[in-house]
Amino acid sequence: MKIKTLTAIGLATVLGATALPVMAASGEGGKGERAAKMFETLDTDGSGTITQAEFEAKAAERFAEVDANGDGLLSPEEMAEASPRKGKFREGGREGVSDDRRAEFAARMVERKDTNGDGLLSVEEIAAREDVFARLDTNGDGALSLEEFEAMRGKHKRR
After folding, report:
1. Rounded to two decimals, what is the model's pTM?
2. Mind listing the pLDDT tens digit for each residue in 11-30?
3. Whose CA, among 38, 53, 87, 123, lies 20 to 30 Å from 143?
């Protein structure tokens, strides 16, 4: 798979569907501690930075996990099933995202990015015109520091 392609799917697949459940499962610490745990998950060599290769490897791993039938394409159903915090509602307050909301989000993503009209997303369609890693690497050194990572998390937080 192309480097640019894997990088672009990183934010949606790795941060959204891999690291967030790890962070949510811990249930401990404040925002900074949770970000540090997520960062640690992506920093597979323990160097204190996330390289583009680490980012892409996790993205490819997560894409393969989400691609339940192994056809190299993601259906809205596969994406919704892999969504973080699946089905974690509690009475009296929201803890997660409902099945309907996850399905709606997946359908909108397919609608926006499905350039060939097959109702599925390829890695290339997901990545079209995006270079996520380059946007996150604000100092241009080829690696993400914890500070850059935390800054990204602040910008992409749900409100």
Report:
1. 0.66
2. 444 444 434 344 444 444 55
3. 123
156 HSE (CA, 13 A, CB side): 15
- In the chain, the number of structural domains is 1
Identify each DSSP E strand in the chain by its residue range: 50-51, 73-74, 121-122, 143-144
Cα dihedral: 131, 137, 140, 145 (round 10): -150
CB-based contacts of 66: which residues, under 8 Å, 6+ apart? 13, 17, 74, 78, 79, 82
Residue 32 CB: number of other CB atoms within 10 A? 11
CATH of the domain at 133: 1.10.238.10
Q: Map tokens 């500070």 to a residue.
A: 147
In which domain, by residue range, is 19 found?
3-155
